[in-house]
Design goal:
The protein is built from 1 helix and no strands. It is an all-alpha fold.
């Protein structure tokens, strides 16, 4: 079963040396890169693509 709510599903945290929050006191360019940033960019692009696809398939869905 590919459902994330399936019984027996096991989640493991991502193994990063540092947390995803940037060090605001560090000099520019010296802090470790935020590895979650690209995942956020991809997620926003996927949401935009899905909304465009839904709008093109049934543009009057809200009026019905």
């Amino acid at each position: 079963d590919e459902n994330l709510n399936a019984p027996g599903m096991h989640f493991v945290p991502l193994a990063f040396e540092q947390n995803a929050m940037p060090d605001m006191k560090a000099k520019p360019g010296s802090a470790a890169p935020n590895r979650f940033y690209m995942y956020g960019v991809v997620a926003r692009l996927a949401l935009l693509a899905a909304s465009l696809e839904l709008e093109r398939t049934d543009p009057d869905a809200e009026a019905a």
